[in-house]
Every structure is written in C-alpha cells, then in structure tokens.
Amino acid sequence: MIDRLTNVVAELRERRAIRFLVGYLVGAWITAQIAGFFVEQGYVGRKVLDVTLFLAVVFFFLTAILVWYHGEKGQQRVQRVEGVLLAAVLLVGAGGAAWIAARDATQGFTSASAVYDLGQNSVAVLPFQNQIASADLEWLDRGIADLLATDLAQFDTLRVVSGQRVFDIMRQLGVVDSRTVPEGLQTEVTERAGARYMLTGSIIGSPDNIQIVATLSDVRTGDIRASARARGRDVFALVDEVSDAISVDLLGGGMAAAGKAPIAELTTGSIEALREFDIGTQAMWQGLYSDAREHLERALELDPSFSAAHVQLAMVLFQTGDFANATEALQRANQHLETASERDRLYVGAFSDFVFGSAAEGEAKFRELLSKYPYEKDVRITFGGFLSQFPDRGDEIERLTLETVQLDPFYGTGWNQLAYRYANRGDFVGADSLVQRYIDVEPDSPNPLDSRGELLEMAGNVEAARDAYKQALAIRGDFAIALSHLARSYRREGRYAESRAALAPYRTSEFAETRVWAWWLSADAWVSEG
C-alpha cells in the first residue's frame, strides 16, 4: 500500500501536477475575489459570481486531466480516453453555467408558497361569475365575494379567507387578469388558501332584478354542502340572505342567528361608496397605492362612516409613507370600529396601540391577529416595522418578512424589506439578488430602483447608486423621494455644486411637486455650502 502511494506521488511529481494544480487554485481564488468585489459594488449581478465559482471547479478538473496526460516532458498525443473525459467535463460546464445563468437567484426563498390549514369550519369565497351586462355593476364579481366574506367573518367559529389572499393565489397561478377563478383551478385556489370549503356562484338577471346563486362545496370530497339563492334589487339584502343560508348549514340555526349584524352596518349602505371601495381595494392588492387612495377617499366622501374604507385608507397611507395623513385616517378608523370586522378591529387596535399607546398591548394584538388570520402578509410587514424599534428583535423581523414572500412571491414590499435586512447585516450580494426580485415583480414602479440606489450607497458604490436614482425618476418624474436621495448622495460627500448641477434638469420638470423639491434641495445645498 505504501509502495503504491509512493509511486503515485512520484508520478505526480514527474508530470508536474502538484505545481500546476496549486498554481491553478491560487489563480482561481484571485479570480473569485475579483468577481466577488464587482458583485458587492453592484457592477454585476450575483449570477456572475455563481457562474465564476462553478466554472472554477469545472476548469480544475480540466486542468487535472490535461496535466495528467501532458505533464511529462516531451511530445504527447491526445488519447481517446482523454478526449472523452475532456468532452464530458466541457459539456457539464456549459450546461451547468447555462442553468445557473437562467435560474432565479431567489428561488430558495419561494420553493413553495406557504399553506395554512384554517381548520374544519373554514371557507374561501371565490369571485362570482357576473353575467349582468352593466358597466356600473361589473365590479360585483369580486364585490359580492368580498361582502359575503365580510358577512361570514362575523362568526368566531368560522375562518374566512380574505379577498387579498384569494387574489394573491390567483396571481401565483397566472390568472390575475381574469375576473374570476377558472373552474378547473377553483379547488386548487381553495386548498392553497388552507380552507375546507369553497363558496362559488353566479350573478344573473338585470340591474333592477339581481339574482345571486351560491354553492358551498367540500374541496376534499367534492360534495356540495349547501346552496342558496336570492333575488331582488338591494345588493346588501341579497348578501345577507345568502350568507344566512350558508352559515345555518355550517354552524346550525341557533349559532348562525346569534349576534349577526346586517352587512350594511359592517360596510356601507351606499352602493356607490361600495363600488369605489371595491375598486380601491383591488388597486391596493396590486400595489397601485395612488389609485387606491383616490377611490378610497371617494368612497369616504360618499359615506364618511364607512369603517372598512377608513381602515384601508390608513393602511395605504402608511404604505406610501404619508404618516401625518395616515395617523389622521387611523384616528377616524378608531371612531367607527364598533361596526368593523374582527380582523379590522384587531388590526386598527394593534396599530393604534403602537402609535398612540402601549407597544406591549399592540404586540399582543398583532400576535392574536396572526393566530386567527395566518395568511395576512401585510400584517407581518406592519408588525415587523413596529418591532424594528427594538434592537434585539432582528431575527423575528426577518422571519416575518421571509414569510410574506413565501405567502406571495409577487409581494414587492416583502422583497424590498428582506433586501434591506440583508444589507443591514453586510450581505450586499444577497441584498442585490433580493432587490432584483423586487424590480422583476414591479418593473413599472420607481421604488425598486430607488431601493437599489440606497443599497448601493450602503455598499459604497455611490456612482451606481446615483444612476439607480435617475432611473427611478425616469420611470416617474414626480417620484420626489428618489430626487431627495440623489441630492443627499452628493451632500454627504460635500459636493454641493455637483448636487445643484444634478438637480438642474428637475427644476424645470413638468411635475410641480418635483420642481418644488428640486428648488428646495438646491437651496439646501447653497445653505450647506455657506
């Protein structure tokens, strides 16, 4: 055994294999360090480093084969075995590099969407088929579903999937542009939502004679558990009639009748306000916050006591950073909580405790909310935001944020917050991959590029950061926060004249708000310069 090992070592020396391979490893290490530097500085993406490391391993085997067959002194020929080995290694290298370049750099975060079992009495209300040919009532497909979900959610013994969750799953299945869930996907949507039953149906008739037909099905057996039918002109009365019939079957007559309020008291008695609320809610689900705010404010003009609209508006304003108006909206929402759903009461209560009162009480309400409604991604982001005031809660914040993108891989806010978490701990390569996913899911939004700019600044690549800020402004010229970040990047370095020069094109912008910000930031540069 020792003699054989001695012979192998002697042959390696004769072929100069050790010298060549050590030299190769040193060169590969230097190459990897250079690639890592360019990735960290934001000049290239993470995939470049991944491909570089993979090819370094592949070329190590190539080098070993070549050294073994040609390391000896004198002239050698390419042997058949050597040719086969070289071809095999090259084939693996080409295929592996192509796969790494094409794969999603963040796929490990969302290998499967999170699914929660909501228990025996759980229902997913899917959008109804709306067959009424009226532009004013085309929103009823999802509107009726949301009203029924809100009405059924009054019962503590029922778990009702939110419309947001249904929408998210539809988007994951590629049917986001459809107003309803195709029949072949209804069971899958319900199962992904974690519900045992699905409520489907249709809306037929005319604006003066609306008929709602609903069917409650067990997704495990395929059996129809209950059905209901209601006809009339009053949408709210029809929803009450259908939900009464469904709840009686699920809970029994006595439990269903106890303490159930008419849907108009929980939402609004104005069909116009309800329409604006539905459009605003749909916009909010898609991250179109300016559109959502416009329609929600219109709903509240039509019905100032519309509690759910106050809650949604407060959430939208907090999402967009308009904290002053968000706080006012939150105070108004508190005034109407007696008619709000349990979910909204907990959400507004937790929010209010953190903003106005006790952080401990707010945390308890957030935990109760997630216990009862585990699929709430926005609640996780909001809760994590409030926990950020405590330095020792970083791991929990990251877990909550990671769960949001597991629930919905298209949730840009989740990818954004996760990217900042990685950057704050110094992992700028990981942060770049995550913010790229944010850009991918919201390609027409300026905020992902603004976030990339901030992350590049944190990594020390200020020039690339400025380019990102300018790209954000190219998408939306009135995105003033990117303008502020652009000016800040120069001000931090004491380059006040260059800051004013960078702001010059925006001082004549077609957007009034951008012009005001550009002049204000320019004036700030003059003052700072003395």
What does this structure look like?
This protein has 25 helices and 6 strands. The radius of gyration is 30 Å and the shape is globular. Strands 1, 2, 3, 4, 5 and 6 form a 6-stranded mixed sheet that branches. It is α/β, with parallel strands linked by helices. Helix 5 packs across helix 8, helix 17 runs antiparallel to helix 18 and helix 24 runs antiparallel to helix 25.
Quick summary of this structure?
This protein is α/β, with parallel strands linked by helices. The chain has helices spanning 2-14, 17-40, 46-70, 80-102, 140-152, 163-172, 186-193, 235-251, 253-257, 263-266, 271-285, 289-302, 307-319, 323-335, 342-356, 359-372, 377-387, 394-407, 412-424, 428-441, 447-458, 462-475, 480-491, 496-503, 512-529, and strands at residues 122-125, 129-130, 159-161, 197-206, 209-218, 224-232.
Q: Kindly report the average pLDDT value.
A: 80
Q: Based on DSSP secondary structure assignment, what is the total number of beta strands?
A: 6
Main sheet properties = 6 strands, mixed
The percentage helix is 55-70%
User: Between the first and last Cα atoms, what is the distance in angstroms?
Assistant: 82 Å
Structural class: alpha/beta
Oligomer: single chain
Report the principal-axis shape: globular
What is the topology?
Layout: H1 2-14, H2 17-40, H3 46-70, H4 80-102, E1 122-125, E2 129-130, H5 140-152, E3 159-161, H6 163-172, H7 186-193, E4 197-206, E5 209-218, E6 224-232, H8 235-251, H9 253-257, H10 263-266, H11 271-285, H12 289-302, H13 307-319, H14 323-335, H15 342-356, H16 359-372, H17 377-387, H18 394-407, H19 412-424, H20 428-441, H21 447-458, H22 462-475, H23 480-491, H24 496-503, H25 512-529
Parallel strand pairs: 1-3, 1-4, 2-4
Antiparallel strand pairs: 4-5, 5-6
Helix pairs in contact: 2-3, 3-4, 5-8, 6-7, 11-12, 12-13, 13-14, 14-15, 15-16, 16-17, 17-18, 18-19, 19-20, 19-21, 20-21, 21-22, 21-23, 22-23, 23-24, 23-25, 24-25
